[in-house]
Structures are given as structure tokens and as C-alpha cells.
């Protein structure tokens, strides 16, 4: 029997370990122990969003000093006419931004997120910019940068992706940040950078530099709109003027659900999360992710077939938006990999049984003369 406190981990590309008898929080304990032992990034793949969130919280508990990032799912149905919430986009952009600098830690995501194609990696770098104390600051050019990056001009900043301008003061709520920033100018120079509470406008922290991430996972500047209009004819035969999405994007508006037209905003093919992973990444995943991935892809195909004939809202084929299940596992085989099981692991090389067991039933029986008898 192996202890969750000292699990063995594979070292070579393609090497696989199979962990068995991991129930309850022993999964997170074994993952946290392995991640602390591994010298690089550990990618943890859960079956769904709720399992990913649970693992994130439990790994934080067992290894509070370990950097743990969560790359969330959009939490909308495939081909939905709704866009992901701004807070979700903010977390996704922040995670990808931090991932480029993370040399040791854990990245957690559901398998549905791994199946989803992403903008090319160069997009995130090209749409980001930094501001520093004492830097020369041109309000008009910065305003254009923000609008090209998808930020909305408002009277008062409250949510991610908003900015407000009042004389020599600019407020910005960048993606990936907990609080908005306030930039105060003296002539054309940044005199003050600080975070503030949007409810009472009080200063929280003074800063030397800030980084602005794009507000969306696609560009919406003049060049991107031109590319979208040209690429439309690569994907669809319908008259674009009959489609509200085409009309809105042509006017610089991001309509709800435009994320499922992502390939039209880029000249090159979309990327994947694997492009953001370091070479020395360790993969750890639930044994049931393949079944979850197949169910999700079946759902994608079904929803595509039921919506593809709408001439007023044509949709992009799944192959341009999602990886196939086989593609994902082909990529996973390029890394050392651990597959954990709730019950016994398959009898094969690299299988380990853990010394962990599910708790007995400790529930309170209110009808009994001794309600806490099970616990006693």
C-alpha cells in the first residue's frame, strides 16, 4: 500500500502511473504531494467544473504554499446565444497570463475546457500592455488601446472590462484583477497609480506598475473586423446581411454568443491549451475524463446538427472550435501521466494501490434514542 503523502510520480515522456483506491479528499492529498515533489507544472484534469473547484479548494488546504490556478469553463452550452460572464473571462485571461511565468505549481481544469480551442498564443501577448509610475501618458492613444482590447467606456467603473475618464483621472477595471485601478495624471505624466474600492471610491493600495490584459478572448479593432468580414465567406454561404452577428461585428459590437465565431477573428488556426504548457508538465487526471469528454463531444455534435440550418445565424463546425477526444489523448501522451481511480487501479505496470478508505456512515439519526451513535 502507498500513502497519499508520498506517491511516486512518472519521470519520462509517455510513462504512466495508475493510482487506485483514492476516495474523498485523498485524491487532493495525493495530487498535492505529487505536485510538491514535481519540479515543474502539474496539470490536473477533472471530469467537470464542480470536481475541479472541489480539488482546487482541497489542494489549497493540503498545500497552502503551492501556487494553484484554475482555468474555468465558459459555463455556457455549446453554440449558446449567451456569452460567458465577464468574471469568467477575467479568470481565464489571468490564468493564461500567470501560466507563462509559473515554473512550479498546479493548473486545474475540467476536461471540457481542455477540449476547447483557444486564440493563438501570440494574441494574448499582443493585446496586453503595462503602465508605470512616471511614464508619459497619452489619454487618447490609451483610450484607443483599451477600446481595441474590448474595454467599454462607462461613467463609473464597477465590473471587469470597463474604463471611465474624468479630466486627468482614468479608472480601469482590468481583466484578471480583484480591484479597479485609478490613474491620476500631472500634465502628460502618470503621477499616481492605485487600486480603489468601486463602492466607496477609497484607495486600497498604491502601485508602481500595472498590467492591462485584453477584455475578451478575441480582438475587435478595425483590422479584426475586416478579417471577420472576409473570413465569413470561408465558413458560410449565406448572405451575411441577413445575420445579426455579422451586422453587429461590422459595427464594432460584440453580440451575445459571438465567442462561437472565434475562428473568424484570426488568420491562423486556433490554438490549444497545450501550447501554453511547459515541457516538464506532469499530467494528473481522473480515470473518467475520457467518458466525460465523449459525452461532451456528442452533445456538441447534437447541438450543431440541430442549429446548423438556421440561415439567420449560421454556426461554425465543431472541428474548428473543439479538439476531438483522440486529439486530446494524443497530446496527453506527450507528457508523463498519472491516472487516478476511486476503486482499484487496473492490473498493469505502473499501478499503485493507496492506503485510503471511504469514511463510514457518520450521519446523525434524529429518530434514534442515541442520534450520534454512528459517530460514537
What does this structure look like?
It is built from 11 helices and 15 strands. It is globular and about 70 Å long. The strands form 3 sheets. A 7-stranded parallel sheet has the order 3-4-2-13-14-1-15, sandwiched between helices. Helix 1 packs across helix 2. It is of the alpha/beta class and 376 residues long. The longest helix has 19 residues. Helix 3 links the parallel strand 3 and strand 4. It starts with 15 loop residues before the first strand and ends in a 23-residue tail after the last strand. Helix content is 30%, strand content 19%.
Estimated radius of gyration? 24 Å
Report the uncertain regions. Answer: none
Mean pLDDT: 90
Structural class of the helix and strand makeup? alpha/beta
How many helices? The count is 11
Distance between the termini: 28 Å
Largest beta-sheet details? 7 strands, parallel
Strand order in the sheet with the most strands: 3-4-2-13-14-1-15
Share of helical residues = 25-40%
- Helix-strand pattern: EHEHEHEHHEHEEEEEEEHHEHHHEE
Strand composition percent: 15-25%
Shape: globular
How many β strands by DSSP? 15
Summarize the topology.
Elements (H helix, E strand, L loop, with lengths): L15 E5 L5 H12 L3 E6 L2 H14 L5 E3 L15 H14 L5 E6 H5 L5 H6 L2 E4 L6 H10 L3 E2 L8 E5 L2 E5 L7 E6 L2 E8 L6 E4 L2 E4 L9 H14 L8 H7 L31 E5 L2 H19 L10 H4 L3 H8 L4 E4 L10 E3 L23
Parallel strand pairs: 1-14, 1-15, 2-4, 2-13, 3-4, 6-7, 13-14
Antiparallel strand pairs: 5-12, 7-8, 8-9, 9-10, 10-11
Helix pairs in contact: 1-2
Amino acid at each position: 500500500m502507498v500513502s497519499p503523502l508520498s506517491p511516486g510520480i512518472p519521470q519520462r515522456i509517455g510513462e504512466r502511473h495508475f493510482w487506485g483506491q483514492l476516495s474523498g479528499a485523498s485524491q487532493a492529498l495525493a495530487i498535492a504531494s505529487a505536485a510538491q515533489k514535481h519540479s515543474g507544472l502539474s496539470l490536473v484534469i477533472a471530469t467537470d467544473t464542480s470536481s475541479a473547484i472541489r480539488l482546487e479548494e482541497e489542494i489549497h488546504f493540503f498545500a497552502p504554499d503551492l501556487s494553484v490556478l484554475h482555468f474555468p469553463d465558459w459555463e455556457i452550452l455549446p453554440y449558446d446565444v449567451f456569452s460567458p460572464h465577464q468574471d469568467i473571462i477575467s479568470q481565464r485571461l489571468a490564468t493564461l497570463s500567470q501560466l507563462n511565468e509559473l515554473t512550479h505549481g498546479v493548473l486545474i481544469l475540467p476536461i471540457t475546457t481542455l477540449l476547447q480551442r483557444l486564440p493563438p498564443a501570440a494574441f494574448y501577448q499582443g493585446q496586453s500592455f503595462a503602465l508605470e509610475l512616471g511614464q508619459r501618458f497619452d489619454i487618447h492613444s490609451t483610450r484607443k488601446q483599451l477600446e481595441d482590447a474590448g474595454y467599454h467606456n462607462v461613467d463609473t467603473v464597477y465590473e471587469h472590462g470597463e474604463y471611465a475618464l474624468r479630466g486627468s483621472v482614468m479608472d480601469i477595471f482590468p481583466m484578471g484583477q480583484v480591484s479597479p485601478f485609478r490613474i491620476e495624471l500631472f500634465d502628460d505624466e502618470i503621477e499616481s497609480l492605485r487600486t480603489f474600492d468601486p463602492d466607496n471610491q477609497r484607495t486600497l493600495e498604491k502601485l508602481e506598475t500595472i498590467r492591462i490584459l485584453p477584455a475578451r478572448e478575441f480582438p475587435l479593432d478595425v483590422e479584426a473586423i475586416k478579417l471577420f468580414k472576409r473570413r465569413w465567406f470561408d465558413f458560410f454561404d449565406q448572405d451575411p446581411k441577413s445575420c445579426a452577428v455579422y451586422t453587429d461585428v461590422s459595427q464594432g459590437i460584440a453580440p451575445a454568443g459571438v465567442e462561437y465565431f472565434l475562428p473568424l477573428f484570426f488568420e491562423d488556426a486556433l490554438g490549444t491549451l497545450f501550447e501554453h504548457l511547459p515541457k516538464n508538465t506532469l499530467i494528473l487526471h481522473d480515470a473518467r475524463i475520457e467518458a466525460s469528454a465523449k459525452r461532451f463531444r456528442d452533445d456538441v455534435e447534437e447541438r450543431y446538427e440541430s442549429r446548423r440550418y438556421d440561415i439567420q445565424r449560421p454556426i461554425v463546425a465543431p472541428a474548428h472550435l473543439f479538439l476531438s477526444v483522440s486529439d486530446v489523448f494524443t497530446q496527453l501522451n506527450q507528457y508523463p501521466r498519472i491516472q487516478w481511480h476511486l476503486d482499484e487501479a487496473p492490473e498493469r505496470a505502473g499501478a499503485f494501490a493507496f492506503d485510503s478508505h471511504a469514511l463510514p456512515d457518520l450521519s446523525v439519526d434524529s429518530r434514534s434514542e442515541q442520534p450520534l451513535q454512528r459517530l460514537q
